[in-house]
## 1
Amino acid sequence: MFSLKTLRTGVLISLWFVFLTFPLMVIKVDPLERIIQWRWKNALLVGIGTFLIYLVVQYLNYRKEHQPPAKVEDTKDQVSFIHKFIADPIQRKLLFGGLLVIAAIFPFVVSTYQTNIMITALMYVVLGLGLNIVVGMAGLLDLGFVAFYAVGAYSYALLNHHFGLGFWEVLPIGGGLAAIAGILLGFPVLRLRGDYLAIVTLGFGEIIRLVLENWSEFSKGPSGISNISRPGFLGMELSLEGSILYMYYIMIAFMIFTIFVVNRLQDSRLGRAWIALREDEIACQAMGIDKQKTKLAAFSLGAFWAGLMGVIFAAKTTFINPASFTFLESAIILSIVVLGGMGSIVGVIIGALVLILLPEYLRALSEYRMLAFGAILVAMMIFRPQGMIATVRRTYRFQKK
Amino acid sequence: MDYFIELFCSGLSRGAIYALIALGYTMVYGIIGLINFAHGEIYMIGAFTSFIVATVLSILGFPLLAIVALSGVAAAVWASAYGYTIEKIAYKPLRHAPRLSPLISAIGMSIFLQNYVLLAQTSDFLPFPELIPDFEFMEPIAHIVGSSDIVIFITTAVVMAVLTYVIKFTRIGKAMRATAQDRTMAMLVGINVNNIISATFIIGSALAAIGGLLIASHIGQINFYIGFLAGIKAFTAAVLGGIGSIPGAVLGSFILGLTESFATGYVSSDYEDVFAFSLLVLILLFKPSGLLGKAETQKV
Amino acid sequence: MLNLENVQAGYGNILALKNVSLNIQEGEIITLIGANGAGKSTTLMTISGVVTCRSGKILFQDKEIQKKSSDDIVKMGICQVPEGRHIFPQLTVKENLDMGAFLRNDKAEIKKDMDYVFSLFPILAERRNQDGGTLSGGEQQMLAMSRALMARPQLLLLDEPSMGLAPLVIKQIFEIIKQINKENNTTIFLVEQNANQALHIADRGYVIENGEITLTGPAKDLLSNQEVQKAYLGI
Amino acid sequence: MKKKLFLAAAAMCLAISVPVAGSAADTIKFGVAGAHSGDLASYGLPTVNAAKIVIEKVNANGGINGKMVELLVEDDVCKPEVATNTATKLVSEGVNVVLGHICSGATKAALPIYKNAGVLVMSPSATNPDLTQSGEYPNFARTIAPDDAQAKVDVEFALNTLGYTKIAVVHDKGDYGKGFAEFAKKFLEDSGKAEVVLFEGVTPGAVDYSAIVQKIKQSGAEAVMFGGYHPEASKIIGMMRKKRLKVDFISDDGVKDNTFIKVAGKDSEGAYASGPKDTTKNPLSIQAVEEHKKMFGTDPGAFFENAYSATLAMLNAIDKADSTDLDALKKALQTEKVDTPIGNIYFDEKGDAIGVGFSVYQVKNGEFVEL
């Protein structure tokens, strides 16, 4: 399985990595005490570690290549297992029913902590689905999605703080304000394409955060707003556990609602216009699609969902400050969309669950968890660049009579 | 008037700093169309390597000039090695993948490298040895322009001149331009595209490392997180000037540096980044491909 | 000179070449004709090493080249003018020609070859300092061919040189193809949709359909073949 | 099929939750929460070390009232939204007391969860005045004085001792720095003795601060009062010296850290910073630093002594109260004095440590010297 040549390459690669990591892994200096620490053990570890990883990767490649040669003829019909499974209506109902039951009893089986992080994960599912409208469907790369999230969160925090408005009253307001922000951003950037759009949205996200940070009179600045009310249930105040439970069910309902809407959108005129716009703008305009309106609709709808989640975020943590709305957050939401599989609803859900729950369960690794997180992002992209669940293109079959 | 000149000079030195990092961004973008988010981390690794080497050498008692030269070479060598390896691991397998995949891979790589340095070294800030001493002859104007400002400025100018020469007139430069414009055709005329892309990463990383050394010496400290903001700003500058264009990256960097400096001086540093990003939006509104960027011609 | 034996190649899950075998003798002009999407361009890209050959063998001067990288293949003397010309738009005409001679180091000879292509296409000499992207379609085709000639190829692969050009220009281009073949003894493998023109200058021809060679023979025979006439010549 | 799936899922959920429920309460669970990864890790990790040192010592001596102390370390990256998860996790695991969190924002987000579970939280570093003064968090205490107290000390020093009339107030736009700066500005203006000629934030992590330094010079300030942490402070002071700007530099506890002197080097000479009263000669403090050197081989980092003291104070309260009940613990904290590296301390009703005060230090010959 491993030829001598592979092994030799492996040794060479591990030597390369020993060289590469040499200054950072082996030497540690204290410039004031003027001490040099030589940690030769690390070099050894890097060498052996690289060699083992190399062997594993080789083994995986070997297996991939020596699988029975892919049935090239009918690969077009090759659809992921999940999609095949869902395609059957009875199985689909069973699956969804089962998932719903699991979702419903989940908080009673597990600890509050598990429920709490599940709420976070569900929020990211919805955020991912929202961004999926912009990036996945309409093909507009948005690196500042978190700005709309912030708009929603601050809407609730401020309205609650100053006017005592409740969660349910602010929910539509927050979504609406975020949607308006989406349109405001959308107007100037409509002409930009691809990466220029990406950097402008990134800039916009940073501008919103910086304004929140610096305009203390308005947003209380970096110290944030605390004691935001949790959502009340029919006017009752809930205990912490009760309110976490309540939030959980709100989020489940929200997720189902979002999936429903996004699913309908995909098949609507607007959804098709987005997909067409993503594929070829000029052809689209030639077909009479209003580019401006269609793009704005994507921006504002995506932003609307981010706004709603912002309100829920503020209600859940009861404290917000601008530090929660950094670029890294946008990057994580984008990673959810891409990792799950662009444009695929199931993919986004799985992507969110993995990316949000993973760092939580990686807590055991404590300081290594962000290292692992970064490595997993890279590895996932290398081994499955189309995402975990690739979108299934709608196919129409020509029936021969 | 003095105040204006002072602000102008700090703007220039800030711009020169951004330019050293932005050049790498723009080269990589030009050739493979990828926003290399890990570039800021390469800059950080370059700074860290030069910190380690310089400190070791100074403990061993080498003279200053030798320390500067050796730590500069070490930073460039290792940063290039990292750039080369990162391209091979995280981007090369994704050349034919959907457009967003390499971007996510780059973000993952950036997170990985930050935490790698955090774990391998320390989360603390470390004092960077002063590699650029105060020059005597600068003393009369030291209150406006410091020695390190001048060194950074001259380095940027030299780097840009050399780079422009290389890209315009040498064999490898022409191959780079050809690869950037049409990769398939470059292969068909016998250019080894993989080697050219590696070379681009190596040159870009070496520049970032030199930048890392100079900037760290200028502000006197480093830690594992310095690459993030510097990277984003340099990227902004590269886009401002028209990403993919080398003079554009330098021009964009100076405009960004001056804007920030004047915004701080005449308005408030609270909003310096707001000004920077607003300027970016404004310029892109009127020139959607940046100041010196080539307009994307669309085939209909 | 060039032999393809049961070559399979494709993109992702799609197999564009199912089973292609053909051979080209030194000094010949061979043409490959076929409809849109039949696998003509893929055949050329596979020979050039841009598309990976999944199975089968490609022999050039009795050496296997299907595993070699594209720059090595160019080094061995196979040069391609791809479909749609692929001029480097922001390089000048002269720089484009320099790129053609990328792998060569003999300055004097390069200069000679450049003069030669300028004599073939005098219009290029006039525009030598103009950006490639500013040329007209016909001029771009001339430039693309000249660029390939700059590598002094033994085998020149031409992919639809007539595409999108005016009839007069097409005629000129085909004249020059013949001229190149004669003057330099350069073997030419010509892929065309314009079957009529191609078969008129070629020695032999192949017909490709759905990734498989369905017909082969001397060009004259193909021109008189009824099937070919019906499908490709519009008679 | 459906049933099987469901059972499997249920079993899985149970498997996750079992270890939580299964651990019995025969140990004292001591939580440590704060930033242990990310860009603020250098403020959180020393706290973990402090807790490790103290708890190892306590356990070696047979624990507290026969119970061993178990350490639960959780990262919150200093982000409010992560802090709520961290807190819920610690509470789910049955934590008894928590040392943390590090940042005020994260602390504010996490406290309601601990409050609900009746868990005592003591922070070595969260200085936002609201945390104790608002009265909303009865389960909170800290071994560091709040920002306003610190700002007051600095302002009084600048006005009365140094006698400045024109002061530029600069901050790092952060929670801590801006809070401090706003208090400083307020006290300066209220005093009527001095003018605040500049009030601005700098961007942390920026590559160059020369523009703001030029602006300070232009404002004609006699001194800069800086709110924020040492990395920015050393950059600003370095840049001021580079630009030959000779004004005094007064700062806060985030700067009164040996790293500041290490990083800023000779530029730091003469700078003022307020910090907890000098305890370096306190034998307990010397001992704590020695222990850190022995266990980890390095000098301790930021807030190490505050964390060490908080650990001692909480364990002492548990010992004296012989319980982990919140009310009993609070009572013990308020009545039982405890010897710690930061002095002999006890706590007031709001949770602020008494006996923890501020003094102003100046860097002299590469060391902070109490004035």
## 2
Amino acid sequence: MVKILPKVLANLLRKPFTVKYPYEKVEPADGYRGKPSITKEKCIRCWQCIRACPDRAISIDKETKTPVIWLGRCTYCGECAEACPTKTIVMTKNFEFLDQYEK
Amino acid sequence: MTMVIPIGPQHPALKEPEYFRFEVKGEEIVDVDIYFGYAHRGIEETFARRNYKHNIYLSERICGICNICHSTCYSMAVERVAGIEPPERAKYVRSLILELERIHSHLLWLAVAAHQIGFDTLFMLAMRDREHVMDMREIISGGRVHSATNAIGGVRRDVTREQVPKLLENLDKVERSVNYYINLFQTDRTIRSRCEGVGVLTREDAIKLCAVGPVARASGVKTDIRVDDPYAAYPNLSFEVITETDGDVMAKGMVRLREMVESVKMVRQILKEMPNGPLRVPVDLKIPPNEAVQRVEAPRGELLYYIRSNGSEIPERVRVRTPTYASAPSLKPMFVGGTVAEIPIVLWSLDVCFACNDRVTLVDANTGKARVVTMEELRRWRS
Amino acid sequence: MNSQEVADLIKADADEIRIISERCLFASSDKKRFLNILRSLKSSGVTHISTITALDNGKSIELIYHFDCKPALLNLKIFLPMDDLKVPTITDLFPGAILYERDIMEMIGVVVEGHPDPRRLFLPEDWPQGKYPLRKQKEEKKA
Amino acid sequence: MGLTTYFRKKSPWLLHFNSGGCNGCDIELLAALTPRYDVERFGVKLKGSPRHADILVVTGPVTKQTRERLIRVYEQMPEPKAVVALGSCPASGCVFHDCYNTLAPLDKHIPVAAYVPGCPPRPEAIIFALVKVLEGMGK
């Protein structure tokens, strides 16, 4: 009983380990591969991204003739950002997005 | 009267979505039969339809826990087929993430094993310490689980000098708690009474049934691909192969825990001795007809890739042999003769990702009526 | 045993031996003689079979047995013509091969004679008979 | 908002079903339950039986063998229920989209309330999704 007292005191005094996520923002580490973003103006229409994508998540938007990424199929690997010569596609740190179906 | 207890089939890893049928006589298990295939996705066939670069990401998604082993093994096999040698620094980065993966996988094993024997405090503690390793992986690879670090001919991401202090700091935390867990495992009454003498795999059975990895090492078989067939930076690293002689759950746990200490040492050595230089070499992915075999020591044992190329950008055949697939036949001698209450921990002692198997049906052999009990109920039966 | 020692051991029954490195070699044999190789491997202390790979190269079916001879890895190929897809079981010599043989039976349609447990392993129960996922069924795709 | 719905929102219980995925999402869901992220702050608990569960969390591309089990598990859950598809696999098949043994997407088999993209999603993203689903449940 006496043996555990120092542990109890140490646990009482230390900070909680849990992140307060929805109330406080959490920043992932540098270089985190989150949601890819597309700057449409920079695109030179070389379609390297489509060739690099391992699971065919990138297609061509018919109206603007720029790439669009199907986020439901993306593996967030960053191959398209690496292949893009003009940095049109970059990986952001954003991970808070979801698709909700309302009946 | 024998009863049949089916367990399954919710099961995650590649070819190990097992569905077990235990035949029990009272409390004693007489026979066990394993059904595979619930998570069979047909990956080997899909490998032969995509090009070499895209296949890296497919191989990574064979298993989420040991994804780096899969992608490293695949990339090294393709490099061997194409006859190219990755740069030295790339080899060290690969070894670094492979060892981090071993630590996080073994910590996950410890956590779930503690949960299976009803020691939930240890479950929470081990999962807490696992987060330090996940942070390190996120710093290095940019993703908590899937690393996407490997490329054919090297690696895509570097470990910069600014990242090293943070990594070493986390490593110290991990090492401290691993030493604590080793002490705990050897002295704690709950763990010892649940693990000692349970699920014994003898040395003869381990050799006969071709067990691999920690399962074989716990039975006294000295097998480790890092020594037998060195790859990446392992020829330059110093470590010892951990073996135990008892072959029970305790021995399997101790092998994994002591391996973590070795891995922590190895990560330190890698961070210290990492050479400078380029990260990847350019590769022509039109690979002439050739074939190669590559083996990697994954956290669960020997992982084997066989690749045959045919002159195009698409491989002719990729064969994957995962460690649990090899260890599955040795489940039978571990179970037979044991009791029903031992099922969860013995099954998990093989590290088969049993975490989400939570439902068991009892079929009475005489009446044929089925009754569903949960795993929680099974755990309590012993007391 | 390293590669050269394995090559010396199996030379009598193997056709073509290709040594890649000290730890890796490929050899080929045929259905009648490969059991002799297995017996001589077994008697010289090889116990570990890593896996069996089955592949369809268009003309015939190849089975590749990967043996871990500590440290050398022996990859033993046997060729089966399309009209005679039968191979004797090796589970009496290497009991660890039981799952791999079930795997090749359902994936490529090779009949393993004398297998103790010839059930399906991975494929769903409603999978059609006579259709194998790893076969290259070229005629079907054209039609 | 009825009283039952109010209390259900206070403590939704999860059932996790793996339909042949790679384990990545499963360990992230496990991580979300453990000290660092601790979804039990919102009363969320992982349950073993579908009869106790309010939210079904599905991971993995639906393989042919698991499809019937999945539908059976879904039917055993009491109303009102919601399905959360975790990761890219149930949404579209991800890298397994052209494998012969997968039947993705999930919404061909059971109705889905929310998709959490990511391969795998971070535990924070899982918390974010659960909070959003709970907001939607009361309406």
## 3
Amino acid sequence: MDDFLVSLVSIAFHGAAYGMVLYVISVGLSVTMGLMGFANLAHGVFAMAGGYVMISAMSSLGLPYPVALLVAFIAIAVVSLVLEMLLYSRLYGAGELDQVLFTIGLIFISVALARLAYGTLQQPVMLPDYLRGQFSMLGRDFPAFRVFLIAVSAVIVAGLWFGVERTSWGAMLRAAVDNRGMAQSVGINTRRLFMVTFAAGSGLAGLGGALGAEIIAIQPIYPFANLAYFLIVVSVGGMGTLRGPFVAALLIGITDTACKYWLPEFGAFLIYATTVGILLWRPAGLFGRTN
Amino acid sequence: MKSIRTLLTLLMAGAIGLFHAQAFAQTIKIGVINTYSGPNASLGDIMDKGMKLYMKQNEKRLPPGVKIELVIRDDGGANPDKAKQLAQELIVRDKVQILTGLIWTPNAAAIAPLATEAKLPVVIMNAGTSSITTMSPYFARVSFTLWQSSFPTGTWAAKKYKRAYIAVSDFGPGIDAENAFEKAFRDGGGEIVGKVRIPLANPDFVPFIQRAKDAKPEVLFAFIPAGPQATQIMKAYNDLGLAKSGVKFIGPGDLTPDDELPNMGDAPLGVYTVHHYSAASTRPANKSFIAAWKKEYGEKSTPSFMSVGAWDGMDAIYQLIIDQKGKIDGDQSMISLRGYKNANSPRGPISIDPLTRDIVQNEYLREVRKVGGKLANVEIETVATAIKDPWKEINKK
Amino acid sequence: MGNLHAGGYSANAALRWQESLPWLVAIAAFFLLPEFLNLGARILIFILFALSLDLIVGYAGIVTLGHAAFFGLGAYTAGILSARAGINDPLIQLVASGVTAGLLGVVTGAIILRTRGLALMMLTLAIGSICLEVANKASSLTGGADGLAGITIAPVLGQFRFDLYGKTSYLYCLAILFVCWWFVRRLVYSPFGASLAGIRENNLRMHAIGAPVYLRMLAVYAISAALAGFAGALLTQTSQFVGLNVVSFELSGEMLVMLILGGVGRIYGAFAGPAVYMIAQDQLAKQFPEYWYLGIGSLLVIVVLFAKGGVLGLVDRMVSRIGKGRRS
Amino acid sequence: MTIALETRNLRKQFGALTVADGIDFRLERGARHALIGPNGAGKTTFINLLTGGLRSNSGGIFLNGEEVTRLSQRARIRRGLGRTFQINTLFRSLTALDNVALAVAERRGVAWNLIGRANRHADVVSESRDLLTSLGLAQDADTRVSDLAYGKQRLVEIAIALGMKPSVLLLDEPAAGVPTMESRRILEVLDSLPQDLAILIIEHDMDLVFRFARQITVLSRGALLAEGTPDEISADHRVREVYLGERDV
């Protein structure tokens, strides 16, 4: 019984760390899809780029880890803003198929560029000493880095919720997700709202990619290899909400970890089966609005 | 219509390129199927360097007038169907006379029927599942088998530990490693307290290793393909503090490949592995090999066992060319390969078993230590001398 | 109406002379390029795969990210029949592959076609991933990550042995493709095909005119799955090996890309796409894998932004421009 | 006169909100009947209840004397219930002919033919062409509907419904968004429809309603408010109250 409890704690802990990273990466995608109705399969590109930016900032510029994380966030937000203005905005309202292809194209390009710039090797992350080793809690050892990960993600989540629930920008955002036409007619500048939201969401993905580089390895095929997971978080959680993807990401993180722990022979099977089940039960996701 | 014209033009261009290539009849064409893209492209790179280094060093060994041309193809990883297609094209279009490379077991398995049909000698530079050489009489292997390294690991471990946990990648070589270690460890009186097969495409090892830790073994035996995954699993081992809770980490040398060590931090210090090659070995042949490597590719670059597989593979190929004086025949080549011996490989004495066409070599126990501020696989003892593939020995009638 | 093969009641279904071109090229290639027949056979197989995908993406409007599931099941059915059951006749395998893939199409279609949009796309992805996991884990049957080896294929009709140079493979694939193409073409021009266009154009209205929309979609999904299953079987038979990659997400994605580059919803886009893509890949990608993906990616972005309709769309526009030039 | 469509005590609630409050309604064969009411009166809900898009909580719906309350949307359509949509619901990139032919083919049961050629189904093609001709769209048969003028698109909207040869036709604001000039054309078309067809029209354009309808039903807050001839309705003070009250505020 004690062993069982021990393993439960392990699974909850590692699952939470993984789920938090998934959430920070995917939440932007959820909002983009809900707000602009845009299926951005290339969202993982931002996460990967965030990882690379952090690694370069540390190894080439010698910046300390926390600063490098911040740089990743800002750099990706800025780059995505440019992309939004130049490319993405042309495709709002285009067909699903066009969006899928366009974003797959972006993935191909980014995979190739990443390989040219960094080679195919997985990039090692040089964590500062204070994040290495173990952290003792309740008589058990936890990897310090993952504790840090959960803590930082929790802060981001809190900040995000505050931003959306308590600020005027958040109110506009919620109004626009709810009914874009209505929001426009009451004088909200939806074009600017899109840009800011897109940049913030992508920046978060970059930050998530950088934070999670130890869990989801930064390598050129990153956007492809993890696409299914990001999309599952969004579609299971429901688009255009903050809460949905959060629950979904934790659910997936913990299920995935539990499967690997207890039922490794099933692999990712249960994750996908759960996804199928949930989407059949609620096609718009757990917290999505059926339209 | 335009598209069809373009298509025809492209087809023609291809055909012309082909005639062009046939003009150099004196040249021996060697097809290389290797991995240059995908997550494991680093493996292809380090093998490629091994081959080219050998060719540069040994240009003069070839019979007069004979030239070698490598026809290099990228399989993009464990991609059997692609490998088969590439092999087919190499044989039919490029008319290669020898085929080599082959990092991945599935890829090697996929081309076996082709090799047999075309009577094409294939020198396997890496793929390590025991059964591969039984798949075609035109296969010869210069690399290793997982049984070769994991079986002695089990024998050695059983003398020191009683409880072991096994974690391997879920594909041919991993299952070989598991079976070999388990048999040797059990035969030596040890107990397996648990085992897990990890999917080959896997982003995060932590849950698997946590499970291993919770099973409280004395020793954790692991095999994953040498490459980025080795670093990943080492990180998980370190993050979860297995060393601190007294779990030893051991495995075949794929766990601590020489070229990945610099990415691993201090995590692998004290990890024991058994393998046929370490870049840190002090054999004279290896010292000169390392020196040549560093001179060619820079101080920072380190060869791995895969580079040596490629280097020795080229040596075997040169030998068969020399034996036949530049006129390559499939069956003659195999006779030459069956008798291949090199007392002075960077990894020590090696030969090819005439019966099984598989590699015979020494296996060394190594510990990861700091040498001159850098991690290295330091060879401690030779745990098996001139060992043949144990799987084939056990399964012999 | 730029779209040549939209079908419908006002469409002229008679064969046009241009439609013989792919077949003439294919036959010419057989005689002129004997060393490229293996590549040729693969192109033909992927054309068949693209054709099956075009049926549901282009004609029924279902965007799928998991079509490789059916291709893979077809490939594994043929492989398992040979390697595990000793049934080596290619035509029997082909039929069996089509049937199993079609059945999987019915079962999974019955589940996923209740949804639309993003949920549908996710479900195709999830089901594709489940198939990959099953293929990976059922290694006693499929060989898992090592792939399924030990496949022998008997001569076609007891006469034509599969040879190293791919002559038999090529002609065999060409024959099967021809039959499937004929069927697809008839389908597109049939009342059923017209009703698919209706579903794609306006699902709600199809319901309102009393069409059994769900059953129609299910039917075309199953037909498409069966065709993909045929293509999978052909791949197994010509390569005598099945690897996990036949069920992979990457294959689904790459196929979609080939189809779109060719031009979606127009039958011959499925011919042009894989042919151009694979020949270009054969010539260019070996030397420069990085630049290859850079090129393909850029091309995709350009096609979506500026060249709707892919290669054939461009051809259409050029032809109509030339036509206009002549007239004026 | 026979009754084509009837509802008895039809009731629908969304939680606490009652959107159909025991509606008793009759549509006679050959009727030219209009359903009017202020925004939010429950007109579209009523239509959706009739077609089966929504399920009623209680009450019954009868189509040509047969109870269809529990039948699916599709089953009701097959029993002769046709409708058009307030917002164009067309097959936009198909020709006008194909738009109509799809409906005709469904009715004739040929749409499951997988192999035969669509254009060889002469019965379907000629019927569709005739239908378009009767609506004055003969010239436009082979034009993509998205390329047609809006007024003509509204006509195709009706033509599709007629392709089903319904016995009851529900027209949901057929002239919505159409400029006055063209709405006259729509009225002409409506006048020319077969005499035995029962038509229920929902419309905001009161001109059109009063010119077309022989019978008017007024709906307010999910309940029947008044029913009668145009003259009766225009004289009804309750109707004026509801309308004027709503409109002037």
